[in-house]
């Protein structure tokens, strides 16, 4: 796996340089980049812009939404190594919860949108437990197919259960409070900017939380399970428990992004929760590099942005992503950026004291690591 | 059982025994001596002499930046419908521009893929393009629900040639105008046609899971009352209907109303036919398409359609122009509507309404004859008067049948 | 005849509750649904054989097998079209012409599906095998391949299904407990079972079949014993493809509007469910699972209503995988000869 051509070498040295920086310096580099990312919809940079085909701020929200989904799915697929083909089900649950509690079309009590977000996450987590407890005893491709089945069941239920209004959908889904200068709602479906800022903020918070989780016992357990479940079990990792945790945390983030999606669109119906959408989510994670948070952000950007930037090829997006998946799996199964693990709590301080240099990272690729077949 | 259908089966058998190659049976209206009053085919409305012509008087002057837009599906799912409309719109704009050298209106096309999650981004882009002063579009009800308010916020007039969900006009959008009757006009009219002209006592209403299918099925079921003896549900993209066919067979209705689109209607109609179900098959505008006739094979013959659209057979000038533009294709469902609505917007431009507010005002107060009907909108954006026609399949072609007159 | 006592149930479905248990409907239409379920189930069984063979030998869920199937459906359609038939009413043919044309379509469908499976194996899976990639990588590649195959049709033929061309109209042949059995049903069921029998004999009785079973049991030992592993893999994909092609022709006879770019997906998932239901890797299991699934789907549909058809299949899939992942007959192609 370790290629020694110069490009890889440069990348290695770049990441080494980054890891050798101390925290404040890292922040000093990061903050301008983050600010730049925040400012994107206002800057509307000429080459990057999706106009005149597609409204740029809304396109950026779309990208941010995919990024959030990819982070959530990455916990399940990249960290814990559980191939989930029905992740869109959680996304759908989040969107529907948001719609049910805020839209005038639903008969349930109306709640403010911001209060609905935690409810949506909680309910999706419950769904995660319900789906995870029975299915996570399966491994590998069996798990993949069973999650696919569950994803489809969620979609079909949304179709068949009358109070969920099938294709008719819910209009006027709620949004966060706040008004513009002219008194109109700040968060509406024509202006992507507030939604983008909100979502990017959510992404940063989620990234910090997930990063901490990874460096904790939970994260190490996930990596152990992913790399060799039997070995992990022998070493005393309660594999089932941690798998359910991965599933549930991933589900919560899926629910969160679903709720944001429902809010921005202000309309939810059953049209976009199909297997194909689920595959696009998965493509984002795999393309970028499952197990690598920066990688999946990159993957989400590619999957969400490219069809909007080049509307001419939007028709071919599934073909292109299909080819990309095949080629990537053959030549670079770890994705554009492979998985890199920071496994130690206080690892930075430990390495600094022991070796006098920055944190060492275990380089390995999540999906490509179980060489001997995951299912036994 | 329907005598007409029986006659058709006999004729088919006779034809089969006579001919070797593929041949279609003929349905002689009323010729089988049944007691069901088969009304004679109504004459199609001629191209009204006073129908609005996009060419105008040829002296119109306007800013060369004046832009109209079509927003809707172009290559996405159910793209045929979008193409029908877009070609109608294009025809109107081309005729206008040919006749008026000093007023060249630009037509921009926006692809929404027909889905509610893609539409808002596109529509936001449309309303943020200042040159665009009027839009023909959002053919589907779902995307209209998701994005209609955006037009309203920016005061950009939106005329839809095909979104028929009744709730759309209940949102208080000042910019929404519907160029045809909604499901609440088609549903009762279809019910009247099935129980009256077709003389059916029991009707099985089959709905797909689309918003259109569900809304229309509710409208017709309410009107049918007890005559709606069974209700069945199918899924979009379903191809095997055996269990539903079996239960319809045992319910044995006089007529079946399929509330949905042609993609599912064709295999469904065929499987009903194969199973020997003899009820008359009736479909709405979503089924009325040549695709259905081709794809349902033997089962297409004798199928009826209801549609809030006017037969285009007599619109010879329109049909010729359309064929030239579309490379020989006949105008499809909603092509004349697209043409009419674009014409209204163009007349507005010619009259000097060259900004959004003025054009919106023009459409709001518009009153005039078009190819398909006379246009005048109420304050909700619904047509003051709309017509529903019935069609049927004869010799493998969709031909007009009768107009359903409101009571 | 017996509509009246089932009407309260039907009306209930409209008024309240979202599931309606129409028991009388199930009883009334039991035999019709059985006949239709067997026909549908035979098609599932043939496609399921492809999943089962590949899984048995490679321990790989060939997610793109549904596309192998739909390519066969397109081959059928184009054969009919090429023979000069056009969409519209069913053609009237003399019996020998009909048999000849159908046989031609069968060959074309089998050839195209087999070729698709072959290319899939060579282009997508073989490079991975050479690199010793883990199984999830295979699955993701399969998903990618499935997308590519599907989208190629979409770009070429568009989103609309091909307009139906049909050579043979279903005619009632006999009745069983009030259920009509048509000529098409008979052809599908008999031909499917025959093909299954041939495949089963091939795997269990021939020398090559012994090779397949040997590789399924232990690829390394089989190689040591002189079995050409690569040839076995190719052969499994080819057999799976041939059977899927045949299934495609039968499917097109039953549902002539079936050729469209996403038409394989649902059928593929269901055939996979059938394979798992019977015991994946087990040829007899595939037949049993296919027929059972076809039946249950139809019974479920008449019990709960048409909109629950797919839910029945998916719930069944989830339940089997959760409680008996080895299926009814147990997995393992290696022991197929017990």
Overview of this protein structure:
The complex is a heterotrimer of chains A (376), B (407) and C (338). Chain A is mostly helical. Chain A is 64% helix and 2% strand. Chain A has helices at residues 6-20, 23-43, 56-79, 88-102, 113-135, 140-160, 192-214, 217-227, 229-234, 239-265, 275-288, 293-309, 317-331, 347-355, and strands spanning 170-171, 267-268, 340-341, 362-363. In chain A, helix 4 (88-102) runs antiparallel to helix 5, helix 11 packs across helix 12 (293-309) and helix 11 packs across helix 13 (317-331). The radius of gyration of chain A is 21 Å and the shape is globular. Chain B is α/β, with parallel strands linked by helices and 407 residues long. Chain B contains 12 helices and 14 strands. Chain B has helices at 3-18, 79-99, 119-127, 141-154, 183-197, 211-224, 242-251, 262-274, 290-295, 316-326, 335-350, 356-364, and strands spanning 67-72, 106-111, 132-137, 157-160, 176-178, 203-207, 228-233, 255-259, 280-283, 304-307, 367-369, 374-376, 388-394, 397-404. The model of chain B is unreliable at 1-38 (pLDDT under 50). Helix content of chain C is 71%, strand content 3%. Chain C has a two-stranded antiparallel sheet with strand order 1-2. The model of chain C is unreliable at 1-16 (pLDDT under 50). Chain C is mainly alpha-helical and 338 residues long. Chain C is globular and about 55 Å long. Chain C has helices at 7-15, 23-28, 30-58, 65-82, 95-130, 135-157, 183-205, 207-217, 219-224, 229-254, 263-278, 283-304, 309-323, and strands spanning 172-176, 179-182. Classes of the chains: A mainly alpha (376), B alpha/beta (407), C mainly alpha (338). Chains B and C meet through strand 7, helix 7, helix 8 and helix 9 of B and helix 1, helix 3 and helix 12 of C.
User: What is the ordering of alpha helices and beta strands of chain B?
Assistant: HEHEHEHEEHEHEHEHEHEHHHEEEE
Low-confidence stretches of chain C: 1-16
Series of H and E elements of chain C: HHHHHHEEHHHHHHH
Based on CA atoms alone, the radius of gyration of chain B comes out at 22 Å
Give the distance, in angstroms, between the N- and C-terminal Cα atoms of chain B.
27 Å
Helices, strands, pairings?
The complex is a heterotrimer of chains A (376), B (407) and C (338).
Chain A: H1 6-20, H2 23-43, H3 56-79, H4 88-102, H5 113-135, H6 140-160, E1 170-171, H7 192-214, H8 217-227, H9 229-234, H10 239-265, E2 267-268, H11 275-288, H12 293-309, H13 317-331, E3 340-341, H14 347-355, E4 362-363
Helix pairs in contact in A: 2-7, 3-7, 3-10, 3-11, 3-12, 4-5, 4-6, 4-10, 5-10, 7-10, 8-10, 11-12, 11-13
Chain B: H1 3-18, E1 67-72, H2 79-99, E2 106-111, H3 119-127, E3 132-137, H4 141-154, E4 157-160, E5 176-178, H5 183-197, E6 203-207, H6 211-224, E7 228-233, H7 242-251, E8 255-259, H8 262-274, E9 280-283, H9 290-295, E10 304-307, H10 316-326, H11 335-350, H12 356-364, E11 367-369, E12 374-376, E13 388-394, E14 397-404
Helix pairs in contact in B: 2-10, 2-11, 3-4, 5-6, 11-12
Chain C: H1 7-15, H2 23-28, H3 30-58, H4 65-82, H5 95-130, H6 135-157, E1 172-176, E2 179-182, H7 183-205, H8 207-217, H9 219-224, H10 229-254, H11 263-278, H12 283-304, H13 309-323
Antiparallel strand pairs in C: 1-2
Helix pairs in contact in C: 3-7, 3-10, 3-11, 3-12, 4-5, 4-10, 4-11, 5-6, 5-10, 7-8, 7-10, 8-10, 11-12, 11-13, 12-13
């Amino acid at each position: 796996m370790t290629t020694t051509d110069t490009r890889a070498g440069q990348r290695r040295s770049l990441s080494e340089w980054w890891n050798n920086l101390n925290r404040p310096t890292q922040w000093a580099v990061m903050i301008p980049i983050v600010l730049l990312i925040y400012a994107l919809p206002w800057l509307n940079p000429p080459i990057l812009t999706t106009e005149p085909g597609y409204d740029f701020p809304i396109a950026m929200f779309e990208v941010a939404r995919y990024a959030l989904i990819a982070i959530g799915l990455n916990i399940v697929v990249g960290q814990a190594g559980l191939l989930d083909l029905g992740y869109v089900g959680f996304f759908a649950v989040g969107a529907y919860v948001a719609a049910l509690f805020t839209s005038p079309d639903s008969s349930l009590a109306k709640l403010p949108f911001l209060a609905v977000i935690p409810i949506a996450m909680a309910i999706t987590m419950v769904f995660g437990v319900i789906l995870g407890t029975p299915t996570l005893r399966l491994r590998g491709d069996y798990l993949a197919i069973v999650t696919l089945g569950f994803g489809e069941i969620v979609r079909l239920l949304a179709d068949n259960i009358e109070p969920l209004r099938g294709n008719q959908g819910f209009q006027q889904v709620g949004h966060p409070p706040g008004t513009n200068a002219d008194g109109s709602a700040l968060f509406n479906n024509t202006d992507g900017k507030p939604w983008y800022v909100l979502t990017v903020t959510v992404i940063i918070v989620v990234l910090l939380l997930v990063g901490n989780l990874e460096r904790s016992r939970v994260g190490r357990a996930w990596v152990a399970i992913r790399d060799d479940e039997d070995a992990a079990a022998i070493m005393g990792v309660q594999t089932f428990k941690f798998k359910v945790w991965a599933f549930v945390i991933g589900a919560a983030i899926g629910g969160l992004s679903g709720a944001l999606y429902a809010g921005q669109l202000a309309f939810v119906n059953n049209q976009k929760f199909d297997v194909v959408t689920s595959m696009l989510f998965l493509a984002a994670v795999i393309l970028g590099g499952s197990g690598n948070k920066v990688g999946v952000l990159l993957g989400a950007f590619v999957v969400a942005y490219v069809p909007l930037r080049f509307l001419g090829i939007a028709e071919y997006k599934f073909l292109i992503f299909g080819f990309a998946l095949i080629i990537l799996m053959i030549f670079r199964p770890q994705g554009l950026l492979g998985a890199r693990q920071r496994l130690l709590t206080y690892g930075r301080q430990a390495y600094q004291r022991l070796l006098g240099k920055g944190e060492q990272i275990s380089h390995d690729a999540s999906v490509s690591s179980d060489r001997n077949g995951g299912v036994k | 059982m329907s005598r007409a259908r029986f006659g058709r089966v006999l004729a088919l058998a006779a034809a089969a025994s006579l001919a070797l190659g593929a041949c279609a049976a003929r349905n002689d209206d009323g010729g089988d001596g049944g007691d069901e009053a088969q009304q004679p085919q109504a004459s199609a409305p001629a191209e009204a002499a006073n129908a609005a012509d996009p060419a105008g008087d040829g002296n119109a002057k306007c800013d060369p930046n004046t832009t109209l837009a079509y927003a809707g599906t172009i290559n996405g799912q159910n793209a045929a419908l979008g193409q029908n409309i877009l070609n109608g719109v294009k025809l109107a704009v081309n005729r206008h521009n040919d006749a008026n050298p000093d007023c060249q209106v630009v037509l921009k096309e926006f692809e929404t893929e027909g889905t509610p999650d893609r539409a808002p981004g596109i529509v936001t882009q449309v309303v943020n393009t200042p040159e665009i002063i009027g839009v023909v579009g959002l053919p589907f009800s779902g995307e209209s629900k998701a994005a209609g308010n955006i037009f309203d916020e920016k005061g950009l007039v939106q005329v839809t040639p095909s979104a028929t969900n009744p709730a759309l006009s209940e949102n208080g959008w000042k910019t929404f105008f519907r160029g045809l009757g909604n499901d609440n006009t088609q549903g009762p009219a279809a019910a009247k046609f099935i129980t009256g002209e077709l003389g059916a006592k029991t009707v099985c209403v089959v709905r797909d899971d689309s918003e259109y299918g569900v809304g229309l099925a509710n409208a017709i079921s309410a009107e049918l009352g007890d005559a709606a003896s069974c209700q069945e549900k199918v899924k979009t993209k379903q191809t095997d209907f055996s269990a539903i066919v079996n239960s319809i067979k045992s319910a044995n209705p006089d007529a079946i109303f399929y509330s949905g689109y042609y993609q599912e209607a064709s295999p469904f109609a065929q499987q009903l036919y194969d199973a020997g179900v003899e009820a008359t098959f009736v479909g709405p505008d979503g089924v009325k398409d040549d695709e259905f006739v081709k794809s349902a094979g033997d089962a297409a013959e004798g199928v009826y359609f209801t549609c809030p659209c006017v037969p285009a057979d007599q619109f010879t000038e329109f049909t010729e122009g359309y064929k030239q533009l579309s490379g020989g294709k006949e105008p499809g469902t909603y092509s004349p509507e697209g043409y009419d609505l674009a014409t209204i917007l163009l007349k507005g431009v010619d009259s000097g309404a060259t900004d959004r507010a003025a054009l919106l005002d023009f459409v709001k107060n518009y009153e005039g004859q078009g190819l398909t009907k006379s246009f005048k909108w109420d304050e909700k954006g619904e047509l003051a008067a709309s017509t529903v026609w019935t069609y049927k399949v004869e010799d493998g072609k969709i031909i007009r049948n009768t107009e359903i007159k409101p009571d | 005849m017996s509509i009246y006592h089932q009407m309260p149930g039907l009306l209930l479905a409209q008024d309240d509750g979202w599931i309606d248990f129409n028991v009388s409907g199930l009883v009334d239409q039991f035999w019709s649904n059985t006949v239709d379920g067997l026909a549908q189930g035979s098609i599932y069984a043939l496609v399921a054989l492809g999943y089962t063979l590949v899984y048995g030998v490679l321990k790989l869920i060939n997610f793109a097998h549904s596309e192998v199937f739909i390519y066969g459906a397109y081959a059928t359609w184009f054969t009919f079209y090429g023979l000069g038939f056009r969409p519209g009413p069913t053609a009237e043919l003399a019996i020998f012409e009909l048999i000849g044309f159908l046989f031609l379509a069968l060959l074309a469908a089998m050839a195209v599906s087999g070729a698709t499976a072959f290319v899939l194996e060579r282009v997508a899976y073989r490079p991975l095998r050479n690199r010793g990639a883990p199984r999830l990588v295979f699955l993701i590649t399969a998903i990618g391949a499935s997308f590519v195959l599907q989208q190629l049709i979409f770009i070429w033929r568009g989103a609309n299904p091909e307009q139906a061309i049909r050579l043979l109209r279903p005619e009632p042949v006999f009745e069983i407990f009030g259920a009509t059995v048509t000529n098409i049903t008979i052809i599908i069921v008999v031909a499917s079972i025959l093909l299954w029998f041939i495949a089963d004999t091939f795997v269990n009785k021939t020398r090559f079949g012994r090779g397949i079973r040997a590789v399924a049991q232990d690829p390394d030992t089989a190689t040591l014993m002189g079995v050409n592993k690569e040839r076995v893999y190719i052969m499994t994909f080819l057999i799976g493809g041939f059977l899927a092609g045949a299934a495609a022709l039968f499917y097109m006879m039953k549902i002539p509007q079936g050729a469209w770019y996403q038409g394989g997906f649902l059928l593929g998932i269901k055939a996979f469910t059938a394979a798992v239901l019977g015991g994946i890797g087990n040829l007899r299991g595939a037949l049993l699972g296919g027929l059972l699934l076809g039946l249950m789907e139809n019974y479920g549909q008449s019990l709960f209503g048409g909109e629950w058809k797919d839910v029945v299949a998916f719930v069944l899939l989830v339940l089997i995988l959760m409680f008996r992942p080895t299926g009814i007959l147990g997995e393992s192609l290696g022991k197929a000869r017990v």
